[in-house]
Amino acid sequence: MRKKTFAAATLLAAATLTLSACGSGTDDKSPVSVVSEESDSGKAATVLDQPFEKPDLVLTDTHGKKYDLRKETKGHPTLVYFGYTHCPDICPTTMSNIAVAKKALPKAEQNDLRVVFVTTDPGRDTPAGLGKWLKGIDPQFIGLTGDFATIQAGARSVGISVEPTKKDKDGKLVSVHGTQVIAFSPKTDSGYVLYGEDATVDDYTKDLPKLMKGANP
Amino acid sequence: MRRRSAVLTTAAALTGALALAGCSDSGSKSGSGSGSAKAELSVSGPYIPQPVSADMAAGFLTITNKGGAKDQLTSVSSEAAGQVTMHSTMGGSMQEETSFAIPAHGQLVFKSGGNHLMFEKLKRKPKQGQTVTVKLTFAKSGPLTVEMPVKSATYNPSTGH
Question: Quick one: signal sequence residues (chain B) (predicted)?
Fold first, then answer.
């Protein structure tokens, strides 16, 4: 009997916590992440002490052709994001923020920059579907799809955790996107800056000119 | 004497409010008979970022409850979309919810990166400058109709652009 009371109290406490967690919405912006991030620095960018190697990903681009990430982006400033197109909120917002910021760069730099969207939902994101979606954001963006295990391993190598698409209890497909954009330097080809999902157009606009040179934002 | 009764009433009201805020799970047991306190709901800051296509769009708003009783948002619908669902987000994964609690004297916030409304199978792609009419249905309060303005794809409510 005592035990039961305790259980009920715990449940109530849990319910209260859950409610306050989704009710306030003002202080819950820190994404769950395997990479430590500086918080409250007032900057969107996190410069890594230990840069990541560029993932060794060979996938299929939106034209159905083989795309070797390391080979194709070597020597180019590169932004990589792992997401999916059946995503209403963060994925299109992240890509749109980068697209708008990119337009502020000189034309030559726009052509030099590689923005790569790697799908975490290859079952639904066909090369053509991915291509159509990205064209609606920026026709220069590169979309990659392929074997999920390969994509997941590539994401993991840069500290980003994604899970395969699965069905929820109502049979709806649910996918998972990464919570960070990784910037790779044109000088070293290593991933040295991270952006969280709350990075704005202004953040990217301010930082892109530096990222173009491999400099710290 | 007068004074005393006023104090007592306040204490009773406070206890009531605390109890309500503490366990806003389903509201099935209280019904509408929980004293004179009622939810008083209003909506602020609604917007839809212009989506990439008509397949899918997100929507954000804040529901404020000035009343002393909790309520629940139980469904969202729109003539403009085949389906509107409500989601919470944890890390990079979103989860569909059948209802969201609105605490007494509290807020229910839908914002980018957190809870969001998801519009599917839109009749046409919403464009910046247009509005989408949405009906919010609650467990106790009457429904609210909200005109959600369509903003740019990169709209940030904290900066206003």
Answer: 1-21
